[in-house]
Design brief:
alpha/beta; 36% helix; 9 strands; six-stranded parallel β-sheet; three-stranded antiparallel β-sheet
Length: 255
């Protein structure tokens, strides 16, 4: 199938037996830069105590859990179910890219098969991932490196927090995380990453806003004092705003 507005339509399949849940936020943001994530499924035995971290994020990221009971020691039923689902999704024709989040070399054959069907294959695993799987992918994200990139942003945000004496009263400290305002720096860094993928070419702000809303559904530019979306990007050290051939189209690019 053709790309959707120049972006990939991606299926994300997660092998929870081989990767940690702490990487999911950073990975999903990377996938949104590349396109739109239409499938998000995670596979494993979620009755185990070791799966608690994955159970805890199901609703936060709208991931569909696929329960796989472990009936026999040594038999990896998770891998088999992921491969079957990957082929079902392939034949549905609904996606043109697939991300396999796993550090397991058992998915090397699947990656090769998907590429034969013109599917763009994205791998995401920890540093321990065997090179056979890494090389079988069109693009591979090292998960430890993804969260290392996010740490400077989180540190900068934390340093701007109010001093203990100016913090909100205890009764206001239980506000849902999804309602908290995201730092402008974090949004700007995310947009910069998107624009880097455009190889220096201007991108319609409408596309940028779609990706921001995918990564941060609670985002509202008016919370930052902007009357229009384009007003949010008033950082002249980072972004340049211009008009397209049609005056109705607003473009943005990196300085």
């Amino acid at each position: 199938m053709e790309k959707d507005n120049g972006n990939y339509i991606i299926a994300l399949l997660i092998d929870t037996d081989n990767v940690s849940a702490k990487y999911i936020s950073a990975l999903i943001k990377e996938l949104i830069v590349l396109g739109r994530v239409s499938y998000k499924r995670m596979y494993g035995d979620f009755t185990k105590n070791s799966a608690e971290s994955w159970r805890a994020i199901v609703n936060d990221y709208s991931i569909t859990p696929i329960q796989q009971y472990t009936y026999t020691v040594g038999k990896n039923v998770t891998d088999s179910k992921m491969i079957i689902d990957a082929m079902d999704i392939l034949y549905s024709g609904n996606v043109n890219a697939m991300c396999i989040m796993s550090s397991d070399s058992d998915f090397t054959g699947l990656a090769k098969r998907l590429k034969e069907s013109n599917i763009y294959v994205i791998g995401a695993g920890e540093k321990k991932t065997p090179s056979s799987f890494v090389r079988a992918c069109d693009r591979f994200f090292v998960l430890e490196e993804l969260i290392e990139r996010e740490e400077p942003i989180q540190s900068a945000t934390a340093s701007k927090k109010e001093s203990p004496s100016a913090q909100k009263p205890p009764e206001e400290a239980t506000v849902d995380e999804s309602t908290k305002q995201i730092s402008k720096t974090e949004i700007e860094d995310f947009v910069s990453k998107i624009l880097e993928d455009f190889n220096g070419k201007p991108c319609p702000i409408s596309i940028i806003m779609q990706k921001i809303y995918q990564a941060y559904p609670q985002f509202n530019y008016k919370q930052y004092g902007a009357k229009k979306a384009m007003d949010f990007f008033n950082n002249k050290n980072k972004f340049a705003i211009s008009r397209g051939k049609s005056s109705d189209v607003v473009l943005i690019s990196l300085i």
